[in-house]
Amino acid sequence: MKPRQNGTFTVGITGASGAIYGVRLVQELLKQSYKVHLVLTEAAWQVFKEELRLDTSDRERTLNELFNTLSGELHTHHLHDYSAPIASGSYQNDGMVIIPCSMGTLSGIAHGASGNLLERTADVMLKERRKLVIVPRETPLNEIHLENMLKASKVGATILPAMPGFYHLPETLDDLVHFLVGKVLDAIEVDHDLFTRWGEEK
Question: What pLDDT shows up at residue 5?
Fold first, then answer.
């Protein structure tokens, strides 16, 4: 698999549990010199505070601490900035990942609501037949959740649940996170060495 040098991806992080997945994905894309457009919901900032123990009182400083040392190009957008380039189908965007994806955001995408920039960009990816990877993080799932995943899948989205594997014999929490992020990178055709694949020596 060949990495697409200097490509452009959009990453959305919502308020579902598992913010570390989104952070690690952005870090990996930037490390490989991709351009990343980042959209965070208000609930995502709450999860940053609760799960990652980050001081989110100065959001710009928080993002700098997480991503500023990496070589890629990061653009962050307000959740309701519809003038952002990613809101238009004419903008060249190689793919979008929503990681983790809340059931509320999933519902907005499945029903074409475009209620914010994240949902609008996902709608653009679907209408332009570009890669959209949705990483839902909820359990248990009710019938509404499952129906919304099926709707999104039928129109072209890849549903990639936050289900870590264990055949690579993880030893740390980072190993589990890297496995999931690696599966996402596979889905958007970005090369990586985040986990040992089945049949490879560790």
Answer: 54
